[in-house]
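[Discussion] Sanity-checking designs against the backbone

I'm trying to build intuition for which residues belong where. Below is a structure token string of 275 positions. I'd appreciate it if someone posts a full sequence so I can compare it with mine line by line.
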């Protein structure tokens, strides 16, 4: 299943279903459309999921941005990207009721299986619910054909009782996403975990408020007896596991600083004083 697939006619869709594309959840889910299946405009790629334990296929910079934000959310427990709106007959009925033509393949003219960019499984520890998200550049939202296809998606999910959202890239979202990508990089690459005694010492060396990254790493290195590279990985691990909470709206790499809001030590919490 590594090569590029053709999704041009109904026979292709049936074959994809038999091969379990668009089915499953967690580590067993395979997206309906993969990176290698399309000529994507923008930055497509694969992101190793921390919660799912599999590679996620994002087809644009906007999708990658949303993925990092969603996965870092405590309430999101699973992410299924490029989720197919099946059965096709339901999409056809919705399109007809709205007086809209369902998208067709440009060559075969067969109706295509529409997809929603992300289906999120969420939980608050007591209940589980789903949320569907379409990712679109803001400038495309005013396009008539884009709006028509969004209407089909919206009604499709409404019929299932699933909230449908539209996400577009903003400067703040981009900053937060890049910060999360930086924070979680070591965890995605399965960098060896740091002993708990090192983590406890490290947290006691941190203070609420603004701290310079290089000063943190130098302090960790000197006080714990580890290399500066390992010190940086230790800091990232504390941030990724949310043992230390920071203001994600401030660009970390660009500024070389973090604004620490909360530090969890021995079941207690030191927090930034409310202004």
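Best answer:
Here's mine. Compare freely.
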């Amino acid at each position: 299943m590594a090569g590029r697939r053709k999704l041009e006619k109904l026979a292709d869709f049936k074959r994809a279903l038999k091969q379990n594309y668009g089915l499953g959840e967690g580590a067993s889910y395979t997206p309906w459309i993969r990176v290698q299946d399309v000529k994507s405009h923008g930055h497509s790629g694969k992101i190793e999921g921390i919660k799912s334990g599999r590679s996620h296929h994002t087809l644009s910079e906007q999708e990658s941005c949303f993925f990092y934000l969603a996965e870092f959310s405590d309430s999101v427990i699973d992410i299924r990207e490029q989720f197919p709106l099946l059965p096709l007959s339901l999409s056809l009925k919705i399109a007809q009721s709205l007086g809209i033509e369902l998208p067709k393949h440009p060559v075969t003219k067969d109706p295509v299986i529409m997809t929603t960019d992300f289906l999120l499984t969420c939980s608050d520890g007591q209940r589980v619910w789903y949320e569907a998200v379409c990712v679109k550049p803001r400038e495309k939202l005013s396009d008539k054909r884009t709006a028509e296809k969004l209407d089909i998606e919206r009604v499709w999910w409404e019929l299932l009782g699933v909230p449908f959202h539209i996400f577009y890239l903003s400067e703040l979202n981009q900053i937060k996403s890049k910060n999360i990508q930086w924070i979680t990089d070591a965890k995605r690459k399965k960098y060896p975990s740091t002993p708990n005694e090192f983590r406890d010492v490290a947290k006691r060396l941190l203070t609420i408020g603004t701290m310079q990254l290089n000063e943190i790493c130098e302090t960790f290195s000197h006080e714990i007896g580890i290399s500066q590279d390992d010190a940086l990985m230790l800091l990232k691990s504390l941030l990724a596991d949310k043992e230390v909470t920071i203001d994600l709206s401030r660009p970390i790499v660009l500024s070389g600083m973090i604004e620490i809001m909360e530090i969890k030590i021995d079941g207690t919490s030191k927090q930034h004083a409310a202004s």
